Amino acid sequence: MAQDLLRHRVRDGDLAAIFERALDLLIERVKKERFASGCSPRTPAATKPSESRHVPASIRRELYKRDGGRCAFVDESGRRCPETGFLELDHVDGYARTRAHAADAMRVLCHAHNQHAAELIYGRAKMEASRAPKATPKQPRLL
């Protein structure tokens, strides 16, 4: 089906070319979803700070561009983490403490370094407790 739909763009129907095009589109779509990359900036509807954990697209886009689409963690010897996968947005002072989203107080970190930063802020015991599986109450069995 993909070969038929893309025949006008990939004349010879080469599966490798079609697959490469599909991957390019997928990467573009995921970057747009996760980091608002390629989206047109819109003016914010309201200036009132929100209690929502949702980070506005304008801030996600700014962070992704500023940090170059990779983890911003720098170790004590000055080496920057090369990770470009498992990226997460991190509130430098912890969202639980600030309840605010501001690009100058946020950064892009890989999952491992985001967890490390959270342990430094909240403590290892608190983070291990939050990562532990939650016990769900048993539901009565219906006949």
Helix content: 40-55%
Counting H and I runs of at least 4 residues, what is the number of helices? 6
The mean pLDDT is 84
Strand content: 5-15%
Taking pLDDT < 50 over at least 5 consecutive residues as the criterion, the unreliable ranges are none
> How many strands, what sense, and barrel or not for the largest sheet?
2 strands, antiparallel
Taking the alpha carbons of the first and last residues, their distance comes to 46 Å
If strands are numbered along the chain, what order do they take across the biggest sheet?
1-2
- Overall morphology: extended
What oligomeric arrangement do these chains adopt?
A: single chain
The Rg value, from CA coordinates, equals 21 Å
Please trace the helix and strand order, writing H or E for each element: HHHEHEHH
Number of domains: 2
Number of strands: 2
Q: Provide the structure class.
A: mainly alpha
